[in-house]
Specification:
Layout lengths: L2 H15 L6 E7 L2 E6 L2 H5 L2 H11 L2 E6 L7 H11 L6 E7 L4 E6 L2 H5 L4 H10 L2 E6 L6 H12 L1 H15 L11 E7 L8 E6 L3 E4 L27 E3 L5 H4 L2 H6 L6 E3 L1 H17 L24 H9 L1 E3 L5 E5 L2 E7 L7 E7 L4 E5 L23 E5 L12 H17 L4 E4 L5 H14 L8 E4 L2 H10 L6 H8 L11 E3 L3 H9 L5 E4 L9 H8 L6 E4 L8 H6 L4 E6 L2 E6 L3 E4 L9 H10 L6 E5 L3 H15 L2 E3 L6 E3 L2
Parallel strand pairs: 2-3, 5-6, 9-10, 10-11, 11-12, 16-17, 17-26, 18-21, 18-22, 19-20, 19-21, 22-25, 26-27
Antiparallel strand pairs: 1-2, 4-5, 7-8, 7-28, 8-9, 13-14, 14-15, 15-16, 23-24
Helix pairs in contact: 1-3, 4-6, 11-12, 11-15, 17-18
Length: 649
């Protein structure tokens, strides 16, 4: 059945279920949803049973939205909202979502926006037509979140056309001839860390899971030239597990070369991904000129293979999903995200293939332990035949200390450096580890366990932290309570200083007083951390602390291994820097599960899968973990190489 005929059937079913007194103006597919537009929103709001019956009858996600003709001009609405709401509510932002007909009001005192027994909110509903939603303003304003909201408002017509096209493709007829089958092809990130990319294929569909980069290698891209990937318009969807560069760094390249389809991810992943991708253009210190061709600049840095226009296009094509929300992403594949515990918004991707034919889950990067920021990886699924799991720390000797032990070790190293009146440098990824180190340092200094001193945040750390506070529902309950109910926001402690200029960075480098600097990039492959290393590495009183994974071939790994000297570029000249400062490893901060946690994850997994596929780890760690899991659980395990295809059924 064609999408148009299916839509006709859907319209007929809707008209059978919805009372004739309700004015329905339009019904259409938009992305994975059936959208019903009406001039009688109140009829649906007062009768939730209608929406439930529609979802059950259609076996689709259903959204009820106000007819666009009932929505007043956003500028006029915003002005009226500000007139109605008392100034004491302290509105920080008002933004409109034309897709849903909602207007979100952010305020420091949301109770004053709602009013006594909802009086003010009801007045807004009556006057503006839009459906008001009230939220507490994030403690730290995020420029990224604000910019994305404004941009999506600008492209709302383009986005609506895109969603309609996705809906028609999604509900196209299935192929009825030949046997059903499912296979996965490793296109990057197998027996290596970096450029994660996997193709999941069926008789009817093709789904790409992650599209990462490996900036530490000459083989930076996934295998884009593999026949499974081409042509790009044959791909039904891209699914991004989380926002780290090695999982999303090449997504804009797909759009550069013609991909026009949807990208499924969580809301925090979308915003963090945009931040990281745009920063990757800036870090290379190359003018963002869409007309320039890809080549190296005079400093030897390779130009990014995409421009900010391609990043914006990727954002336009994003379809965010919540944890636990099941969605059709292809004619025969349904996707559900669950918490992976790795970074903000990171997701285990569970795919239900066919009409109960097969179930496969990709953990992405995962942490099977409650951390200072997140709950542990979800380990229960309705059905599961194959699990694809990471093995970054899957080697025999990869046992990390607990979070408590890591905090105590960090305290000890910082104390020792302070006694020498030295400075501490911590290379961090902007997302995840930096926020956890911030929480530990804040607690240690607030409770007097170490001397209070400035903690400088250089790179994207401050903005990434702001995005964390914009999505409190993705943090663990203890941290949410501390921030939003107890009014104790550790991220706003006065010890934290944002480095916002080159001059400030130079002043910090030349300041004789002790301090701690958290700076990107985490593997020292570039970024502001290099400037601090140049200034402080020759002094034995200073200390460099690694709190995250250092990939083979990176500057971080070389220093970690004990190199006595490094060569860096200074004003286009090569300079040698002696490494006399102390170098320490505090492993317990990693966002990856260690070997013990990976094994425990399989031990507690419900249900037990028939097959486990190992990826995202150095070659010997992949094969070693595969062997250990087979011996312990008697489950078929595989550690495929890149370009290898595995048939599931």
């Amino acid at each position: 059945m064609s999408a148009d005929k299916l839509l006709d059937e859907v319209r007929e079913q809707v008209r059978r279920i919805v009372p004739t007194t309700v004015n329905i103006t339009s019904i259409d597919f938009e992305g994975p949803m059936v959208v019903v537009y009406t001039k009688d929103m109140e009829a649906f709001a007062s009768n939730n049973d209608i929406v439930r019956q529609l979802a059950q009858g259609l076996r689709r996600r259903v959204a009820i939205r106000p007819d666009p003709t009932t929505l007043a001009d956003p500028e006029a609405v915003e002005k009226r909202i500000r007139e109605i709401i008392p100034t004491e509510a302290e509105i920080t932002d008002i933004y409109f979502e034309a897709d849903t007909g909602e207007v979100t009001i952010e305020a420091l005192a949301p109770g004053l926006v709602i009013g006594k027994q909802g009086a003010i909110l009801n007045e807004i509903k009556k006057e503006v037509g839009w459906a008001p939603k009230v939220v507490r303003a994030p403690p730290i304003a995020s420029k990224t979140v604000s910019d994305i909201r404004k941009y999506l408002r600008q492209v709302q017509d383009e986005r609506k056309d895109f969603l309609r096209k996705v809906g028609r493709r999604l509900f196209r007829p299935k192929i009825e001839v030949g046997e059903n089958w499912l296979r996965m092809t490793a296109l990057g990130g197998f027996r290596e860390v970096g450029r994660s990319c996997t193709m999941l294929s069926t008789r009817d569909s093709k789904i790409l899971i992650d599209c990462g980069a490996d900036p530490t290698s000459t083989e930076m891209h996934p295998y884009f030239n593999a026949p499974e990937l081409m042509p790009l318009d044959s791909i039904d969807a891209v699914v991004i597990t989380h926002a780290h560069f090695d999982h999303c760094g090449m997504l804009p390249v797909l759009f550069k070369y013609g991909y026009k389809g949807p990208v499924y991810l969580t809301l925090p992943t979308r915003d963090l991904m945009a931040l990281i991708l745009l920063d990757s253009i800036k870090v290379r210190n190359v003018k963002d000129d869409d007309d320039k061709k890809d080549h190296d600049d005079d400093s030897g840095r390779k130009r990014p293979p995409y421009s900010s226009a391609h990043v914006r296009e990727a954002v336009t094509h994003c379809i965010p999903l919540k944890y636990g929300e099941t969605t059709d992403i292809a004619p025969d594949i349904r996707l559900t995200f669950q918490n992976a515990g790795h970074i903000l918004g990171s997701a285990v991707c569970h795919f239900h293939v066919g009409d109960g034919m097969y179930n496969i889950a990709f953990t992405g990067d995962m942490k099977f332990e409650r951390t200072w920021l997140f709950n542990a990886t979800v380990n229960k699924f309705p059905r599961l035949e194959t699990l694809v799991i990471e093995s970054t720390y899957g080697g025999y000797h990869d046992v990390q200390p607990s979070r408590t032990d890591a905090a105590n070790q960090l305290k000890s190293v910082v104390e020792r450096t302070l006694r020498n009146r030295g400075k501490v440098i911590v290379p961090v990824f902007a997302v995840g580890r930096s926020q956890e180190v911030m929480l530990v340092l804040e607690e240690l200094m607030r409770t007097g366990k170490i001397e209070k001193m400035p903690v400088y945040l250089d790179g994207m750390i401050w903005e990434a932290t702001a995005i964390h506070t914009a999505y409190p529902e993705y943090l663990n309950s203890q941290l949410r309570t501390q921030i939003f109910q107890m009014g104790q926001n550790p991220f706003l402690a006065d010890i934290f200083k944002r480095v916002d200029s080159k001059e400030m960075r130079e002043n910090i480098c030349n300041d004789p007083n002790p301090c701690v600097v958290l700076a990107t990039s985490g593997m020292m492959s570039g970024g502001p951390v290099i400037e601090y290393v140049k200034a402080w590495a020759p002094n034995q009183n200073n200390c460099l602390i690694f709190v995250g994974y250092q990939a083979e071939g990176t500057l971080g790994r070389r220093i970690q291994k004990g190199t006595a000297e490094i060569t860096l570029t200074e004003k286009k000249q090569q300079v040698s820097i002696p490494i006399r400062m102390a170098v320490e490893n505090v492993d317990g901060f990693s966002g990856h599960s260690d070997r013990r946690q990976l094994i425990n994850y399989i031990a507690t997994l419900e249900p037990k899968p028939e097959r486990i596929i190992i990826g995202h780890g150095e070659e010997h760690k992949c094969s070693d973990l595969a062997s250990a899991l087979y011996k312990k659980f008697n489950i078929e395990t595989r550690a495929p190489m890149n370009l290898e295809t595995i048939r599931m059924r």
